Amino acid sequence: MNKIKKAVFPVAGLGTRFLPATKAIPKEMLTVVDRPIIDYAVREAVEAGCETLIFVTGRTKNAIADYFDKNPELENELEAKQKLEALEIVRNIIPSHVKCVYVRQSEPLGLGHAVHCASPLITPDEYFAVLLPDDLIAGHPHGALKQLFQVHDREQCSVLALEQVNWSEVEKYGVIKPANDETTPIVIDSIVEKPQRDVAPSNWSVVGRYVLSGKIMGLLEQVQRGAGGEIQLTDGIASLLETEKMIGLPLSGKRFDCGNKVGFLEANLHFGLRYLNK
């Protein structure tokens, strides 16, 4: 059985909701307690067994690569001052067996386009993960991606993370039509991007974690611009559904939408209290 070893992180967005802070700092580098948002998603991927982390970045995102790179000057300074605890933290941000790869998204053409930018590194016969760092998920008892991997190991198909949202919010998400909504996991019948409430097939939304067949890369090449004038990942998934089984998994844990200020503050409160209660 082939294990999933590659994870794609689309991190090229401008983060305009957090201006003026994101004028100089990538939104993924804003901290939840003492770690950047992107660090939480990377830890989740590493916990699930991913060994190649593919960051799809933009020209203002050099700080992300700097964060995951080694910093000999800082390490030498900490060692000289015998700040050994801080030294261990800095040295172990990325385990030695994990490698980071950076791919540039030249234009902001949507999530589907961002994922497709990683296509030279993904073969059609392998599965890979996609993590959207804005969705910070405190999984229980395992991280969100590991939960998806467990279903994939059993079903050997693509798996999407799901959450039931208020009907008033369905037009913000990709929404599935379940073939079965009384048992878990859910077999997905179809999917649509940001439907109006009166035509939404359900209120099961896709939230920030995907296990996808590498065949989707070829399909994304053919996708036309959809909602918002962008190349939508949801449309590529819809095409994949025409030939392959796909499963939706309601996650165990709590999701924080760090793409907006309220969700970001809630995440800081949640993880801050966990830190204080250690």
From TrEMBL:
The keyword Nucleotidyltransferase applies. Its EC number is 2.7.7.9. One of its GO terms (molecular function) is UTP:glucose-1-phosphate uridylyltransferase activity. This is UTP--glucose-1-phosphate uridylyltransferase. Keywords: Nucleotidyltransferase, Transferase. It comes from Ephemeroptericola cinctiostellae. Pfam families: NTP_transferase. PANTHER family: UTP--GLUCOSE-1-PHOSPHATE URIDYLYLTRANSFERASE. Residues 11-269 form the Nucleotidyl transferase domain. It catalyses: alpha-D-glucose 1-phosphate + UTP + H(+) = UDP-alpha-D-glucose + diphosphate. Belongs to the UDPGP type 2 family. The lineage of its organism: Bacteria, Pseudomonadati, Pseudomonadota, Betaproteobacteria, Burkholderiales. The keyword Nucleotidyltransferase applies. One of its GO terms (biological process) is UDP-alpha-D-glucose metabolic process.
